[in-house]
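QA checklist item 7 of 12: single-chain prediction sanity check.
[x] sequence parsed
[x] length recorded as 576
[x] structure emitted
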Amino acid sequence: MLGSLMFLWTGCCLLEGFSALQQKRPHIIIIVADDLGWDDVSFHGSNQIPTPNLDDLAYNGIILNNYYVSPICTPSRSALMTARHPIHTGLQHSVIVGSQPYGLGLNETIMPQYFKKLGYTTHIIGKWHLGFFAKEYTPTFRGFDSFFGYWLGAEDYLDHKALAQPDYYGLDFRRNMELVTNATGQYSTELFAEEAVKVIQEHDTSKPLLLYLPYQAVHSANLGPGMKPLEAPNKYVSRFPYIQDKNRRIFAGMVSALDDAVGNVTKALYSKGMLSESIILFTTDNGGPAAGFDGNYASNWPLRGVKATLWEGGVRGTGFLWSHLLAKPGRIATQSVHICDWLPSLYYISGGNMSDLQENDGKNVWDALSQDSESPRKETLHNIDPKEHHAALRVGNLKLIVGDNYGGKWDGWYKPEEFSGESHYVKGDQNDSPEIHVHVDSNNPALNFSSVQSNGAVQHMMQAFPYSKHVFKSEISHLVAMPNYTPRYKPAIITCGPRPANATTNCQPSKEPCLFDISVDPCEYDNLAASRPGDVKVLMMRLQQYNATAVPIRNKPVDPAGNPKYHGDAWVPWIK
């Protein structure tokens, strides 16, 4: 279905000028939440999981409401690091699993290498997932001054061992290149926050800092027999007695731990005197794995689909930008943004020469976001997977979907699990609406709200969480407030209305392309392909043009030589 028309890739739109008066380069903190769904944060209106620290940053910054990421992990991380679309790095299919001997090509210049040219100190804390089969593919050989975390895509949160395939199991936790063997029993979300705080405290503030903080949270852990796919200390899980579904309750605890961690990092920046000179970017890497997908219980409600699909629930990213450099903060931004755009945008505002950047697919969206002007991004390629034979593209408000994965099994709309102990699989219910009603027993002795600090975030959340005030409160409200601005604490909520009875049948992308107007139909209810064949033809031609620029996939089969059992039960680079 995808042809071979040639396409001249336009690259990055360069906006002139970094102010000569703005000589001090900002500190850049990039926080990635792994597998966080659209409906898993209260700044998107979730009334299950309060995220007060994230909310304070989001409401005082810019909530990204038209923001896209790749549908799965490795492709998104490669796009973030290179500003190149995965179809141009060969990472457009699947993710790196275990001892598959490939990674992000060494011909690619990545973010820390660019920022080193500007005098930045560069650190990564958390998940890498861009290759480790040879040491040259690991973070400290690719521009990062230090690394603390793990190389694979998933592992246990407490013993830090990763199960990639049956019988491929071992420790994957390192400081730089050295294995960390004394962290067993320590929860990774807390470990990574503690390490980030230490990096900030020890940072020489005469130099700008690039801190890349890709958390393990809230990805599922190992999925093997007898293993726990969802893990969080009880001190976090116990904050959610009103969520009766066990899996969703543990997941909520994982999100809450992440929210606390972001708050602690923000406080560390403030204490070091760095916060007012920092840019904080928060993003998920893909949509949430809902309803048990990949062993997880995220929620993208009311959006359609899950992680690894090209529906909005798989590619619409949860994110925000916070900085005193933003000219017009306190907004829900409707500007179109893709994860490829962050490298050129951050390099620009840091005073970099845009001609330094390797040919790339990103747009410099900084001025558009900061000043609330028109975005230079007019279209977004979600993906073209030549092996799974599916693709999606958005041009303006129109989105084209071609082909399907999982045989359409995960094409539905999935409410967050609540009180029945069962998964709320919602598909084709005409009378269903995207509202969640929380009811808890106010006589529960755990729900005691005496002696509570009050701030804007708490007051906002109390409207949706009347039984949670004693637990969910931000400690950073006064730190992240913008001068001369009072945040409204108004969540960015997507409302889709009743679902048509034919919503599950009017689009069968494995048979023929589907077309949606995302501006009025973000939940992808109404397939317009039959009524707008001309638009389908135009977008199909555009997809063919993109496909003509794609490079072959880099994926390789599992190499048994990389099995940890041959390397002291640890994951190590095994190819010299």
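[x] summary fact logged: The first strand starts at residue 27 and ends at 33.
[ ] second reviewer sign-off
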